Amino acid sequence: MRKVQRTVPAPAELGTEVIGVPEGTDVELDLRLEAVMEGVLVSGTVSAVATGECIRCLDGVRQELDVRIAELFSYPENRVAEDQDDDRQEVEEEMINLEPALRDAVVSELPFQPVCREDCPGLCSECGARLADDPDHSHEVADPRWAALQGILTDGVSPKDSGSPAVGNPDEPKES
After folding, report:
1. What is the average per-residue pLDDT within 96-106?
2. CB 3.0–4.6 Å: which of 74, 89, 122, 171 could bond 39 by disulfide?
3. What is the mean pLDDT of the chain?
4. What is the pLDDT of residues 147-174, one digit of tens each?
5. What are 106-152's pLDDT values in tens digits?
6. Rounded CA gap, 119 and 117, in Å?
7. 8 A C-beta contact, residue 142 and residue 149
8. Which residues of 107-123 are buried (b: 16+ CB within 10 A; e: fewer)?
9. Could you tell me the CA-to-CA distances from 131 to 59, 114, 124, 127, 137 in Å, in that order?
10. Between the CA of residue 37 and those of 1, 34, 96, 150, what are the distances in Å?
11. Confidence of residue 11 (pLDDT cuts 50, 70, 90)
12. Exposure string (b/e) for 128-154, b if CB count within 10 Å is 16 or more?
């Protein structure tokens, strides 16, 4: 058994489109390598800092990660025929590629929809204002069924002056 503690740069694309560990930032590995009959069992923790955007207000999100990892790296000579199609990791020339196992462990621990805080109100759907800055923010919303009449009331122009006939205008001849 061998214990390994290393700080390595984060590989590219260690995360999702919304949150992830930036490429090149420090990733702390505290691993235990054990020789077993099938190969090498790697277990331990991975620590890093993920950054991204809040899905509600688009502010920055920073999340400390402390992820457990456990992966068996098989010796090529110990593989049996039915394992050939399996997606197992192998020891190659006495080296192991930890990146796929690291990516699987870290990405699965990242939040699917990161938020800056649980009660983040987000942005106004009408104007995009941050609702956290102005909790009393609101807009007067007219019923869309009356939208055609909204212009008559807000323009300050009477139906006579606008050239459009008003319903029930006394000057119009009535049909019989």
Report:
1. 88
2. 74
3. 81
4. 777 767 655 555 555 555 555 555 555 5
5. 999 999 999 999 999 988 888 888 888 888 888 877 777 877 777 67
6. 6
7. no
8. beebeeebbbeeebeeb
9. 12, 17, 6, 10, 7
10. 13, 10, 16, 79
11. very high
12. eebbbeeeeeeeeeeeeeeeeeeeeee
Predicted confidence at residue 35, as pLDDT, reads 85
- Cβ–Cβ contacts within 10 Å for residue 46, how many? 22
Amino acid identity, position 13: E
Which residue has 């019989």 as its token pair? 176
Locate 26 and state its tokens.
């420090």
What tens digit of pLDDT does each residue of 33-46 get? 898 888 888 999 99
Cα separation, 128 vs 131, whole angstroms: 9
Paired tokens of 1: 């058994």
Closest CA relative to residue 10, chosen from 50, 60, 64: 50
Reported residue count of the chain is 176
Question: What is the rounded CA–CA span in Å between residue 62 and residue 152?
Answer: 50
3-state secondary structure of 130: strand
Tokens of 30: 């505290």
